[in-house]
Each structure stands twice: as structure tokens, then as C-alpha cells.
Amino acid sequence: MALVLHESAEMYLETIYRLHLRNGVVRAVDIAQEMGYSKPTISEWMSKLRASGYVKPAQGSAIELTDLGTQTAKKIFERHVTLTKIFESIGVQPEVAQADACRVEHYISDETFNCLKAYFAQSAKLEA
């Protein structure tokens, strides 16, 4: 049974995905360091995400995203990267664009995100 994802769960999945891209192997301690949370908090969330089918234990103390977890994390990560680029393209400072994208990515509808993405992709073509 998949957990209805809220911002916190999405942040964990995105963090695991980013750490996997960066390091290959992801452990609870890596997540704790990246997010600035305690190991017990990470452990609690990993249990919730495991029970919901988003993560699974891997070799040793590693944590892996399941297919569902990977699909979800990629979607969140794409939103983050795309929104950051869009915000920067309209003049928002990189640090602010990054922080705002992190907040907006969790609440924007698929329809609005896809329209923004298409619009800015077309705009980029027109300016080139």
C-alpha cells in the first residue's frame, strides 16, 4: 500500500535519489548528514517508506529505492531542477531559485508544471 506522499516523504526520496547519483550507495547516516536530521528520525522515515514500497534494504546498511521509489524520486528531482532553471531564467538569484524550487516542487500540480516546462522550453528555442 503506497503512502500518500507529503512534502517530508518527497524530500526523503529526493535526497536518497541525489545521494545515489552522487555516491552510488546510500546509508541512513548519509541521509541524516545530508538532511541534518537525527539517525532515529531517519530510521523512522525509512520504516514508513519501506512499508509503503518506496525503499528497500540493500547490502549491508545500504538503502535502495524500489522501482516506485525511483520513479517518484526522479519526478521530484526533475521538478526541482526544471523549476530552478525557470526561476533563474527570469532573474532570480541561484540560491533563492534553488530554495524556492524546493518549496514549489511539492505543491505544484502536474498540469501547471508541464505547462511551465513546455512554455519555457519553447521560449528558450525562440531566444536561440
What features would you highlight for this structure?
single chain; 128 residues; mainly alpha; Arc Repressor Mutant, subunit A; Diphtheria Toxin Repressor, domain 2; 2 domains; two-stranded antiparallel sheet
Please explain how this structure is put together:
Helices cover 70% and strands 5% of the residues. The chain is mostly helical and 128 residues long. A two-stranded antiparallel sheet has the order 1-2. It is elongated, with a radius of gyration of 16 Å.
Write the layout of secondary structure elements.
Layout: H1 7-23, H2 28-35, H3 39-51, E1 55-57, E2 63-65, H4 67-89, H5 94-104, H6 110-127
Antiparallel strand pairs: 1-2
What composes the largest sheet?
2 strands, antiparallel
What string, H for helix and E for strand, traces the elements in order? HHHEEHHH
Q: Which superfamily, in CATH terms, is the homologous superfamily of the largest domain?
A: Winged helix-like DNA-binding domain superfamily/Winged helix DNA-binding domain
- How large, in whole angstroms, is the Cα Rg? 16 Å
CATH architecture classification of the largest domain: Orthogonal Bundle
Q: Say how many strands there are.
A: 2
Q: Strand order of the main beta sheet, please?
A: 1-2
| Share of β-strand residues | under 5%
| Alpha carbon gap, first and last residue | 46 Å
User: What value does the average pLDDT take?
Assistant: 90
CATH C-level label of the largest domain? Mainly Alpha
Overall morphology = elongated
What is this structure, in a nutshell?
This protein has 128 residues and is mainly alpha-helical.
